[in-house]
Structure formats: C-alpha cells, structure tokens
Amino acid sequence: MSADLRVTVRRTGDRHTVLTLTGALDFRTADALYEQVSAAMADCRHLVLDLSEVAFCDSSGLSTLLRLLRHAESSDVTLALAAVPAQMARLLAITGAHAVFSLHASLPEALAAGDEAAHDGRPSSGARGGEATT
Questions:
Q1: Phi/psi of residue 103, each to 5°?
Q2: Can you give the pTM of this predicted structure?
Q3: How many domains does the chain have?
C-alpha cells in the first residue's frame, strides 16, 4: 500500500470486517486499495469502509469504490461506507454515485445496519440518495 494511503483491517465478529482508510484515495493508491479490499471480501459477509480519515478522493478513487461495490455484489458481500468526509460526499453527490452506496454517518451505525441485515437475512441497504442516516 502506498505511503499516501494506510489501510487498517479489523474483524468485528465472524461476519464483519472494517477497513479504516487514512490518507488520500487517488490514482496512486487506488489499485492497491482495490486489491486489499478484494482480499478482505474473501472471508466476510459485511464489509465497512471507514472513511473518516480520508483527506482526499479523486475520480480514480471513486472509480475504485464503484468497482469494489460491483465486486462485493457479485460476491454476496454487503459493502457500506461510513463517516464519509465532506469532500467525498460532494464527489458522490455530483456524480450521482451516492445513490448506489450504503452510506452511514458513523462506523457504529454501519456495523449496526450490518448486524440487522444479517439477523434478517437481507442485504444492508443503509441510506441511499445522498444522505447518511443519523
């Protein structure tokens, strides 16, 4: 992983994995992030990307997030974005990508949504349409 983006992986139970991203998600770090997140999908049902420490995201970063969402859906893994910073939220809104992601205001909220979905046997939908739930 590039020095510009650090990824910390944490398992929270037998179904959930949290990846905390710190730094810039851009053309230099996007491919390595895709590989690391894809590997984490192999042994979880609910994956949360904690974006609270992301300082910057460009179009390559957004493209990578969309690729990861498609990969998660084809692997029967839910993918949630937690604590999306303002700059990323604007990028998601401007491009319309906010409508396809499960967005959550905080990490605990994203984990709770994953627990609820797992209990109900349904995918976690989170908030769609641009607003994280509170």
A1: -105, 135
A2: 0.86
A3: 1
